[in-house]
């Protein structure tokens, strides 16, 4: 009888040389990778796996960062009795992947271009700026294909502003003008990102319109849009699109406003404006939708909500009762901050009620809670785990893409005009002209680098300790992503419905991306 070991020997190859992580340890449970003007870790193309083989990329709490290996499927193997006992034990915690059952199409992954991002990039030398942008948008980097930007200022600015700040109402927007932040801090880096990643899609959102349009005449706090300015506000969006177009920047989508429910908290200093679902429906149906439809930007998508998951319960249903508004809406934008408090069944039910409206998560960040101290936790694996589990959860329930908040912040988690500091996937250290890639960066990269736009989620099972998700790419490559939440290494079998078995050791607290044809 032919005998073979169950724990498959992984063969390392070096067909394309990667720059390895330069690790640095701070006060938290894992490492950061340090990059500067001349060196940064990379994940180069190594070609598609040949028939019968698979490729593996691993990042782990103990320090691996997209470490590459290769193995082969097992088929028609005869085992000894001892091996069969081990095999049955592993099979009990096995994972099945089947491309016969398909779900949503993937839109992509990315992060946000805020004023703070531009400030932090400008504090680095030009070569280091380029290294950072390549890390996100380059072929050897994360291959981000989404970018988000505020229309006017947000909390990650150094002042509160809009694009028409006048002392008197300006109904015809005669004083509308892009801010110096647009021209100096956003547009140059966006244009470079588009040069690196030509498929980059940009989505934009207003935090607060000009305060003379609002009922409280303030940037923050409880407020609504004054009815006589409904058309003016639609024109405000149009002028923004025209202005960015004049700089050679095309905007793929706009949202109906960042986090309108934040206006319900009087003490919260975040710039915002509230909507009721019925008034928002009216504004989309009779003003924003028709204004865009009549313009050269009639292909620009409208994303509703741009707020927490719980608004799917009632708010969006009431908004969607305006059928004309619903026709203008392409998708629903969601934020992650309250995901743990509201079930994924809300995502499922929304998809089944509105199957033609895609779901897109447009903002996430660690360190947003009051008791998250310090705000920036250099090398925190726990925060990387928060990201990987949230991405998996959302994408397993019909969400088509996941967009991080600030692309880069400083070691304080800013700058921020209201001191609403948070963490980021990349943190700058301008004193040494370097930046730190956090575990959060790699959590997203395990998706963005391998799951290209147009991929389709396929069926995969999970176990008690191993979270999984799987995709079929446009080139018919299968991408399986696993996360071992356990403190123990796990031997598992992945069974593909067509290819056979992968028997593999999954390290404790590790993200694993497995690729095969």
Quaternary structure annotation = single chain
Class of secondary structure makeup: alpha/beta
Poorly predicted tracts of residues? 1-14
CA-to-CA gap between the ends? 30 Å
> What is the 3D form?
globular
Q: Which whole number gives the mean pLDDT?
A: 94
Question: Count of helical segments?
Answer: 11
Helix content: 10-25%
Number of strands: 21
* Fraction of residues in β-strands: 25-35%
Described by strand count, sense and barrel closure, the largest sheet is:
9 strands, mixed
Computed Rg: 24 Å
State the strand order across the main sheet.
Answer: 4-3-21-18-17-16-5-19-20
Protein topology:
Layout: E1 23-25, E2 31-35, E3 53-60, E4 67-72, H1 81-91, E5 95-105, E6 108-112, H2 115-122, H3 126-137, E7 146-151, H4 180-196, E8 201-206, H5 230-246, E9 253-255, H6 277-293, E10 301-308, H7 315-320, H8 323-328, E11 329-335, H9 345-353, E12 358-363, H10 381-395, E13 399-406, E14 426-429, E15 434-437, H11 439-448, E16 456-460, E17 466-472, E18 478-484, E19 490-496, E20 500-506, E21 510-516
Parallel strand pairs: 5-19, 6-7, 6-13, 7-8, 8-9, 9-10, 10-11, 11-12, 12-13
Antiparallel strand pairs: 1-2, 2-15, 3-4, 3-21, 5-16, 14-15, 16-17, 17-18, 18-21, 19-20
Helix pairs in contact: 2-4, 5-6, 10-11
